[in-house]
Design goal:
The protein has 2 domains: 221 residues, Spore Coat Polysaccharide Biosynthesis Protein SpsA, Chain A; 117 residues, Hexapeptide repeat proteins (UDP N-Acetylglucosamine Acyltransferase, domain 1, 3 Solenoid), CATH 2.160.10. It contains 8 helices and 31 strands. It is elongated, with a radius of gyration of 22 Å.
Length: 355
């Protein structure tokens, strides 16, 4: 099998962070989401991976390179415009050939990886398999209707009256019959070739399309709140370790990861939390579910349930930073008048003086 990762979107829902950074490279628990996707595919035994790229291609190529650090071979597939998931499949035919493949959206995070899913599909004669998960509000998603044998009957996009609570996760598997499907369908009202239309074509033409019901958590990290939730989930799964320095006046609990070169001085750090390489935490409080990247400074401030990206400074703040995304090279410091609370989404190179 081969792997296909879609990383061509603009990430408009994550503005302003994605004005200057590909959304797939924003980290959760200090590791870019795209890296986690590559590792999931690699761990399932797949080493040939194509990445569909768009406007942020140069940044993604610079971060991922050849893929050798993960023991995989990466092929980049340019998409001239975001013309739909089925279009991304269509332009990947030279790379995929007639091999079976898994397609994974590059901004999705899923609990437990995809190894069981890959094994199930590889051992079957099915033409396609799609990942579904129960959700509390299925009317907000693409929803699958199943027959009594567990096969896909139809897919409905954001139905007013959902036939089930099973939503489509951004992970799909196909054999060579997908080429017939993507050639047969036409653009939707959005002007895109929809993958749901391609899957429905397979179903309507008698091909075997089966679901994989995922019972763990799954998050599409397309919005700031979803990114923070994914960060919390992944932090809770980390095996904590301390490689940096913690002075005797600091309190660091057993769920905290402190990476090499980081320093914790006269501070309280409560996990699950990760402090990146060469970051300094001084006279500060870092609360649960916080990821602070490398080469940052947090001094005389409090941060909780937030993501702080690299080379940023948070200093002498009058209130706790909470539920926030802070971009790269941000300077966040106190100005004379004291606010009661802070909730922020700041892009790279922001320089904010608080009133």
């Amino acid at each position: 099998m081969k792997g296909l990762i879609l990383s061509g979107g603009k990430g408009t829902r994550l503005y302003p962070l994605t004005f200057t950074s590909a959304k797939q490279l924003i980290p959760v628990a200090n590791k870019p989401v795209l890296f986690r996707v590559i590792e999931s595919i690699r761990d399932a035994g797949i080493t040939e991976i194509g990445i569909v790229v768009g406007d942020t291609a140069d940044e993604i190529k610079a971060a991922v390179r050849t893929g050798h650090r993960w023991g995989v071979n990466i092929t980049y597939i340019p998409q001239e415009a975001p013309l739909g998931l089925a279009h991304a499949v269509k332009i990947s035919r030279d790379f995929l050939g007639d091999d079976r493949f898994v397609m994974f959206l590059g901004d999705n995070v899923i609990e437990g990886g995809i190894t069981p899913l890959i094994r199930q599909f590889a051992d079957s004669e099915w033409n396609s398999q799609i990942v579904l998960t129960p959700v509390p509000q299925p009317e907000q998603y693409g929803v699958a209707e199943l027959d009594e044998n567990g096969r896909i009957v139809r897919l409905i996009e954001k139905p007013k009256v959902p036939p089930s609570n099973l939503a489509l996760v951004g992970i799909y598997m196909f054999d060579e019959h997908i080429w017939e499907a993507v050639e047969a369908i036409r653009p939707s009202w959005r002007g895109e070739l929809e993958i749901t239309d391609a899957i429905q074509w397979l179903v309507s033409n008698g091909y075997q399309v089966y679901p994989y019901i995922h019972q763990g958590w799954w998050i599409d990290t397309g919005r700031p709140g979803d990114m923070l939730e994914a960060n919390s989930m992944v932090l809770a799964e980390l095996k904590p370790h301390i490689e940096g320095y913690v002075d005797r006046d600091s309190e660091v609990d057993s769920r905290v990861t402190i990476e090499k070169g980081a320093e914790i001085i006269n501070s309280v750090v409560r996990g699950p939390t990760i402090i990146g390489q060469n970051t300094r935490i001084v006279n500060a409080y870092i609360g649960p579910f916080t990821s602070i990247s490398h080469d940052c400074v947090v001094k005389d401030s409090e941060v909780e349930r937030s993501i702080v990206l690299s080379h940023s400074t948070i200093e002498n703040l009058p209130a706790r930073v909470q539920d926030s995304l802070i971009g790269r090279h941000v300077v966040l410091k106190r100005s004379p008048i004291r606010p009661k609370a802070l909730k922020l989404t700041l892009g790279d190179y922001s320089n904010l003086g608080l009133l």
